[in-house]
Amino acid sequence: MPRRLHTTYMYYVPDTSHTKMQNQTHPPLIDPYNRRIKSLRISITQRCNLNCIYCHGEGESGSPDTNAPACEISAETIAALVRAALAHGVRRIKFTGGEPLCRSDFAEILQELPPLKDISLTTNGTLLSECAHDLAEAGLHRVNVSLDTLYPDRYRRITGHDMLNTVLDGISAAVNAGLTPVKLNMVLLRGTNDDEIGEMIDFARKFGSGVVILQLIELMEFGESCERVDMDAIETALSLRASEIVTRSMHRRRKYLIDGAEVEVVRPIDNSEFCANCNRLRVTSDGKLKGCLLSNHGLVDISSATEEEMHVLLEKAVAMRRPYYTPDL
After folding, report:
1. Is residue 274, in this structure, part of any structural domain at all?
2. Nearest residue to 159 via CA among 146, 144, 174, 172
């Protein structure tokens, strides 16, 4: 007998409250479309030790090989920005790259941050096993690890390197260090890894319920050798296996609970909810605020700003946000 499917919906309600949270001493950051900024996504380097065929580089141009450390946002600027953002009610920080762990001072960056609800890292996992425990002690809460396949030959084809086992060691180290839930970012590539979803679900399940979560991510077509899969068909197949489906308010993202495993589906393409519910501001690796991954409209330079100046610059960047992605003119 098929299992009963339970569906839970959490509807998005714009946060217009000006009630000050603990440590909030400035008005909340609300853009012209009534979206309150609650998180910062900070790229701290373009450098990377892999060469993934689908990489969008967090929307930054230029070669990762030429992004010298001297051009990267400083630890002092990051700390000043986060302290200022905290005063406006921001409580979540995600560090990205490039590969953030290419920065030798990442633990020091974490140690300089004020207390926050959620500090996370997106990493390719190749350097994680060496530092997971140190990062947890420095204040990191959880990690997202890019893992598109469990087959060495496919991993080499996607990333250009033979480092799959190193990544798997990094995932285990993150779990042991308590950097959970570990989210596995699997970008779905038609004809390359779209037949591995079942195996990836089994891999996530073995760590225990809620410890490792699989994220199936719709491809944003930046690479020439990649094609998107039919995400509707993927979600239909997942729904047939799921005992429960939870729809999150952020981007209307669905989470499928399948025999003790959690599978989230991330669909940025042709998804009006993705932009409508966007509550994050991005920071480029050379120290500029931006409102959208794909757009360089309204960049605001914070690379040499003081903490006091950050308040005005944050407000300026938020005021220039657009309702949804539009190509730069």
Report:
1. yes
2. 146
Q: Judge whether 146 lies within some domain.
A: yes
The confidence band for 242, taking pLDDT boundaries of 50, 70 and 90, is: very high
Element of type H or E holding 312:
helix 307-319
CATH number of the domain residue 183 falls in:
3.20.20.70
On whether residue 285 sits in a domain, the answer given is yes
* 3-class SS shares of the chain: helix, strand, coil, % to 5: 30, 20, 50
**What is the per-residue pLDDT for 162?**
98
Split into its structural domains, the chain has a count of 1
Gap between the Cα atoms of 259 and 241, Å rounded: 8
Cβ contacts of 140 within 8 Å, gap of 6 or more: 110, 119, 120, 121, 179
Q: What is the mean pLDDT of residues 205-212?
A: 96
State which H helix or E strand residue 79 sits in. Answer: helix 75-87
Q: How many residues does the chain have?
A: 329
Q: What average pLDDT does range 237-246 have in this prediction?
A: 97
287 band by pLDDT with thresholds 50, 70 and 90: very high
Structural domain that includes position 287: 6-12+29-319
Looking at the predicted structure, is the pLDDT value of residue 150 above 90?
yes
The answer to whether residue 19 is domain-embedded is no
Write the CA distances from 282 to 110, 286, 291, integer angstroms.
Answer: 18, 12, 6
Q: Name the region of 270 (left: φ>0; alpha: ψ -120 to 50; beta: rest).
A: left
d(CA 45, CA 75): 12
Region 97-117 average pLDDT: 97
CB under 8 Å to 199, separation ≥6 — which residues? 150
Contact 266, 215 (CB under 8 A): yes
Residue 3: per-residue pLDDT:
40
